Amino acid sequence: MAELNTDQRIDTPGLARLLADAASLVSQVREGRSLADMPARPAPAGGLLDLTYGTLRRFRRGAVIVSALGSRSPDRPLDALLWCALYALQSGRYASYTVVDQAVQACALIGLARARGFVNGILRSYLRRRVELDALADADLEGRWQHPGWWIATLRKSYPDAWSDVLEAGNTHPPMCLRVNLRRQTVAGYAARLAGAGIAVRQVGDVALLLEHPMPVERLPGFSEGEVSVQDAGAQRAASLLDVRAGQRVLDACAAPGGKTGHILETADVELTALDADPARCRRIEQNLHRLGLHAELRVGDAGNPLAWWDGRPYDRILADVACSSSGIVRRRPDIKWLRREADVSGYAERQTALLEGLWPVLRVNGKLLYATCSVFPAENEGVIKHFLARRPDARRLDPANAGQMLPGADHDGFYYALLEKQP
Question: How many domains does the chain have?
Fold first, then answer.
């Protein structure tokens, strides 16, 4: 490869800024902050989203390569800038010389102008030794599978025949699936409407349409009118598994942001309480229901402490969509791979068990509770349910189709469902 002219400046408006902003976000994740908690969260689409999420998905690869190139920089934002630049080079979306030039310019934007020569040298060295360094990253366990070592070990033990597929799925871009609101449109009718707009889809569930290419929701016909929602095909199983009937009293515990709440209300005319501990997240439920033209009673409270919010009337159905490691949706939340620790899994399991214990008394006899997570770790799923059933002789597990562990794949993310019935 020809040597780069370090005095040349490529006119690529915005890439240096995007690299600097992505490096800032990646650096904050490395320090333990979730992307969801950052005021400067990436927009739903665009270059910043791609650079940030793409870099985070490639857990450890950038660090392995930068270390092999001899970097001993004490500046974590500079490390993050190098990782983002490496992803930009590997993505194929930009010319190599453009990435190098713009990464050098980004140094000043992150307050490290003195590092311009260093960044230029590291990235040029990578381009010269690319095949060798990519092979080195592949030889590193975490670099190859782009997940933490403990995560890899857990999946290998839990799914000896499928662990590699689960890891590979976690490194891909997530599918975009739609849920058709049957109160306003038929599945066939909406699919035809999309076809007329040149948008290719295929049906993957009762009301689920998988887009061939993701797109901004503003481009979806009828979205603002509530004809359709964005919801993963795996998440859409909850409403059907809950087996709601008209006139029933239903609790959606841990309801925010309201996707499953809306789906339940689209399915049957029920008296639904949507509960969440976070007032701000409750407002998101309200906004989603308003778009759909639906209504639920919104309450702020801890699902595990019903004395603080329950009116004493038992529920016929309860959806317990509990907080979890989110390991089944890691391709949507790649920062999770950096934030989770092995000890977190048992901590989640303890809280999930406590939440089940708290909700069980508000369920009517012969009523049903659907336990749901977006995790692929058995300790949060089968482990919690088996422990609960052992302690509760009045709980019986039902085994409807589509329940149990769903591993992530091309059409859906990873989820777990267990349907319990309260015995007399």
Answer: 3
Q: Are residues 249 and 392 both part of a single domain?
A: yes
Model's pTM, two decimal places?
Answer: 0.92
Q: Render pLDDT for 346-397 as a digit per residue (tens, 0 to 9).
A: 999 999 999 999 999 999 999 999 999 999 999 999 999 999 999 999 999 9
The residue range of the domain holding 188 is: 177-230
Q: Euclidean distance between the first and final Cα of the chain, in Å?
A: 76
Q: Measure the CA dihedral 226/228/233/236, to 10°.
A: 30
Are 220 and 312 within one domain?
A: no
Active-site choice (177, 254, 324, 374): 374
Does one domain contain both 318 and 371? yes
CATH of the domain at 130: 1.10.940.10
The model's pLDDT over 60-105, given as tens digits with 9 standing for 90+, comes to 999 999 999 986 666 689 999 999 999 999 999 999 999 999 999 9
Question: Could you tell me if 355 and 286 lie in one domain?
Answer: yes
Helix, strand, coil percentages for the chain (3-state, nearest 5): 50, 15, 40
C-alpha to C-alpha distance for 81 and 18, rounded to whole angstroms: 10
CATH for 263: 3.40.50.150
107 is catalytic: no
> How buried is 3 (Cβ within 10 angstroms: 0-12 exposed, 13-18 middle, 19+ buried)?
exposed
The span from the CA of 325 to the CA of 340, in Å, is 7
Tens digit of each residue's pLDDT (9 = 90 or more) over 211-261? 999 999 999 999 999 999 999 999 999 999 999 999 999 999 999 999 999
In three-state form (DSSP H/G/I as H, E/B as E, the rest C), the secondary structure along 283-315 is HHHHHHHHHHCCCCEEEECCCCCHHHCCCCCCE
Give ∠ CA 72-86-3 in degrees, rounded to 5: 90
Six token digits for residue 371: 């336990």
Question: Do 242 and 388 fall within a single domain?
Answer: yes
